[in-house]
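Hi R.,

Here's the chain you asked about this morning:
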Amino acid sequence: MGRGTDLNNGDCIGTRDGLAKSSRCAVASLAATIFLSSLGGSVSNVGLPTLSRAFAIGFSQAQWIVLAYFLAVISLIVNAGGLADSLGRQRLLLAGLALFGLGSIGAGAAWSFWFLIAARALQGVGGAIMLVLAFALICDIVRPERLGSALGLLAAMSGLGTAAGPSLGGFLIAGFGWRALFFVNVPICIAIAWMVHRTVPRTRHATAGPWRPDWTGTFLLVGALCAYCYAATPESGRFAAGNLVALALAVAGAAVFVLVERRAANPLLRPEMFRDPSLCGNLAMSVIGSTVIMATLVVGPFYLVEGLHMTPAQAGLALSVGPVISVIAGVPIGRLVDRLGISAMSMSGLVIMGVGTTALAFGEGIVGLPRFIGSLIVVMGGYGVFQISNNAAVMAKSSSATRGTFAGLMNLSRNIGLVTGASVMASIFSATAHDGAPGGLAAAHGLRATFATAAGMAALAVAIGLSSGAVPILRRNAKRGG
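And the predicted structure, written out as tokens:
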């Protein structure tokens, strides 16, 4: 299968089994896959306060309901890319959907906190496969000059899933209890699997080598990330000796991972991929942008419920406003990326995110709902602009045979940022929201401290983009990111 089919026409693509499948239907199926992955990652966030009470756990433990999902995504995401390049993308995508569905059933039926964590991890395994394959296949189907528009569609569906998660989750909790947060994924998963089977062509690239998993590298990477997350989630917002030990283990694990990967015959991440400073800049910016956006998704529900005394349903509706903007703007933003170029749009997105986080970082007293929602819209809108541009820059550096690997690398950086946001940013909120002030004022203080940190991180991302060449603002018409 070549890349000669345009997103905007009705041409058909040939497949190994002789079927002719519409490119539009295939793109719709992949967009639906991104929707499900985003929904699975966001629908439980608004239920964290409820789950904390249901399992009699604290804030730091509740964070692991989110972290378990993203850690599993990270552990499989690069391996999924390499496996897809070698064995075929459609079949692996169907396997990912099946694993996601089984994990959703397990989470909904969980009788203990640790069983819930295990089920969320299984969801994450499926989610890793879904994310990588959707991006890899979209680049197979769509012409390079239309890539921004296609990625804009995926971003819109990601925003739709993120928007639907909090609002749907709030109503599910109110009407059916917390178990419905996970069972709701199952019928959606079945429907999308049928769509993928019917519309997405079976592909295997002859130029891709056989898949040789790097289990040592995977184990070291996941171990270092688990230690990092534990170090960043202190009990009651206060660091203890155990957190410091975990941080030391994380640093040591990362160092050993780098040494092992340099000597491995089939490394999880090939060192030569990182000789391009602009690619490293794109990936670092992705980590930072995802960290900032995760702060809104994890800290937001606790602030609205505990600080503004909203119900889960009300909080879910409030949190869905920002992602709705991303849904509406996703495709137009993608077209602007094609027209104006990756560089200008990447920088614009980061600046917009900085403005939104700054609006929440400064002021006195309780941050009211109108200001919170307005800032959320700005932050989410800026992230949509940045994410589409940055994703296009990374994928433009790949070849047909390495597209799955680059999609895995891109999603790896994004999910490392999500893990950081769910741990570090949430811990900043937890630590600064317990300063002895009355409930609402304490929560507002925690919110401002969290987003002051986020504003500083947005500025850091701008500096990285400029210094690495990932955002070459002096280069005119840099439409494929330099």
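The radius of gyration is 21 Å.

Let me know if you need anything else.
M.
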